[in-house]
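> example.struct
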């Protein structure tokens, strides 16, 4: 292949992105080595400053190869043909009739934005003839994420003035995914036109003894068509091509699944969607059964910042649970058994019956769905003003990447105002643990070849824990800004006669804040919020300790950290003894 193997292709895409699947199918078919960086659009990860600097359009997918960054699926497919000249070319000669036919077909397929189709399926369900994987719940989640994107873009433009122009460019033409009924009907009409055109093309190919859409070679046209048909099936619109009017199209789709790259790319696409749906939908009947008969299992790092959020929620909501310790410093989160349970290799992970969830936010949403006592609910009503405030607060807290803060505390100890339980000694071990994770994952990929793909995916998604001094300074500035914001929020709450962050009820926002304050205290940053400039925050923290669940979880958190320090000192002493 005409490629520099030392500089592989990296694909940045949404896990269930329609356009990204096109590129994945092309890469698989052309047998090009590549890495995948998942960017969850629902979490606005594609809008983060590092990503926008790399790809100012903020659109997915985009591909990075050597010094080039290419966005847009059709442009990426053409680029792949240009760098791999001798292997499975996807585009015919530009002077040939096949090129014109392919281009016409592509333009028709891309004559509408797929997000508008998804939004329409949610808004006008009477037009969706059958149940599907992408049901109204999934479509609503995707559509609602576009509202979040607009708010997040404005927020980031304010936080990063040096990138204001880039972010404001995105706001000029916002994508809303809220078509009118007339616009949605027009899109459905185009779906039918695409299927009709594909049937005619296949009829012409069959008459010429050809099996693909535009000849005897698999091409980009086949990729556009296969991913299009798969998407219609997911959305409950399969009848547009499987109603008996397109027999060649039905037979063609079945034949294409005999191609290994098609089977893999489309099968993985479906698996990712199934996983997403399992995280979003919780049938009430089975939930009640599981809540009654099966305890919740929590797999977490003993001093894990995000795991403490989940423990606090479990304690507050009085949900029985068992804890299984996964020690990050010993790379237990990378062990094969755990990677099979949770291919992302991240903690915390919650298992409840057949439900497996990772990520503290997703877990807290799940726990709220199985709690029947309204006084123990942690989440406000969706789409309410309090729901929006919670989302905004959570994003502000999670904009402070804790692994980078820990790495900075170890590398630049003079910037830490006081010595905490997690001093330079502890941070050094935690930092080295994160730095050692890639080597461990590579070795496990070698010794467990059947899981090589899972480990390779993990290698593309390991958190950055090694900030430069300038980056650490920016983190400290953001930390101080966050405390100022919280103080102003508490002042507003007090003026409104409210006790908590977003109202008169204890919510997930309070969990995010309490665990943050405790972690930063451990790291030596207590003067940032207890120096006299944040009196309401100090009083708030003291009052929250009157809540039994908060007191128990935060005290246990501190005890585990004390035990960790003792364990590390014993380990260091033992290693020194061996050397002597």
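> example.seq
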């Amino acid at each position: 292949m005409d490629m520099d193997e030392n500089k592989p292709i990296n694909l940045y895409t949404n896990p269930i992105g329609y356009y990204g699947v096109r590129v994945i199918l092309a890469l698989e078919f052309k047998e090009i080595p590549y890495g995948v960086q998942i960017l969850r659009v629902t979490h606005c990860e594609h809008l983060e400053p590092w990503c926008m600097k790399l790809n100012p359009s903020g659109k997915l997918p985009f591909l990075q190869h050597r010094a080039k960054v290419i966005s847009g699926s059709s442009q990426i497919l053409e680029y792949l043909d240009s760098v791999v000249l001798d292997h499975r070319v996807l585009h015919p000669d530009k002077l040939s009739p096949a090129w014109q036919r392919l281009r016409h077909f592509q333009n028709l397929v891309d004559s509408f934005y797929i997000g508008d189709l998804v939004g329409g399926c949610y808004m006008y369900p009477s037009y969706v003839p059958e149940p599907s994987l992408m049901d109204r719940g999934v479509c609503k989640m995707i559509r609602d994420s576009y509202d979040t994107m607009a708010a997040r873009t404005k927020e980031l433009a304010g936080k990063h003035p040096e990138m204001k122009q880039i972010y404001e460019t995105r706001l000029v033409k916002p994508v809303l995914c809220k078509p009118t009924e007339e616009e949605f009907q027009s899109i459905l009409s185009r779906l039918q036109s695409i299927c009709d055109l594909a049937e005619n093309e296949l009829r012409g190919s069959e008459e010429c003894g050809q099996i693909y859409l535009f000849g005897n070679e698999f091409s980009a046209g086949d990729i556009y068509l296969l991913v299009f048909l798969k998407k219609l099936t997911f959305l409950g619109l399969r009848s547009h091509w499987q109603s008996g009017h397109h027999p060649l199209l039905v037979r063609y789709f079945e034949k294409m699944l005999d191609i290994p790259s098609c089977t893999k790319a489309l099968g993985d696409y479906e698996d990712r969607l199934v996983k997403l749906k399992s995280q979003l939908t919780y049938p009430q009947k089975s939930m009640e059964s599981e809540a009654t008969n099966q305890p919740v299992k929590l797999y977490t790092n003993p001093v894990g910042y995000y795991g403490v959020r989940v423990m606090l929620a479990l304690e507050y909501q009085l949900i029985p649970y068992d804890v299984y310790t996964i020690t990050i410093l010993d790379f237990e989160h990378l062990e094969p058994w755990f990677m099979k349970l949770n291919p992302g290799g991240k903690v915390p992970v919650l298992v409840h019956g057949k439900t497996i969830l990772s990520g503290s936010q997703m877990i807290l949403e799940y726990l709220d769905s199985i709690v029947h006592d309204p006084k123990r609910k942690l989440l406000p009503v969706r789409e309410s003003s309090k729901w929006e405030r919670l989302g905004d607060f959570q994003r502000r807290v999670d904009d402070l990447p804790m692994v980078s803060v820990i790495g900075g505390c170890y590398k630049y100890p003079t910037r830490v105002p006081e010595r905490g339980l997690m001093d330079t000694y502890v941070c050094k071990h935690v930092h080295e643990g994160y730095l050692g994770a890639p080597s461990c994952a590579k070795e496990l990929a070698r010794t467990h070849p059947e899981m090589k793909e899972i480990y390779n995916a993990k290698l593309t998604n390991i958190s950055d824990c090694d900030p430069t001094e300038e980056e650490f300074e920016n983190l400290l500035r953001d930390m101080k800004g966050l405390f100022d914001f919280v103080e102003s929020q508490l002042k507003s709450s007090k003026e409104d006669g409210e006790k908590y962050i977003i109202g008169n009820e204890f919510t997930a926002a309070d969990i995010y804040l309490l665990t943050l304050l405790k972690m930063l205290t451990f790291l030596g940053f207590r003067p940032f919020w207890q120096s006299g400039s944040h009196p309401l925050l100090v009083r708030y923290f003291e009052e929250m300790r009157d809540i039994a669940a908060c007191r128990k979880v935060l005290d246990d958190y501190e005890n585990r950290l004390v035990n960790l320090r003792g364990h590390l000192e014993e380990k260091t002493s033992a290693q020194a003894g061996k050397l002597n």
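> remarks
The domain at 9-94 is CATH 3.40.30.10 (Glutaredoxin).
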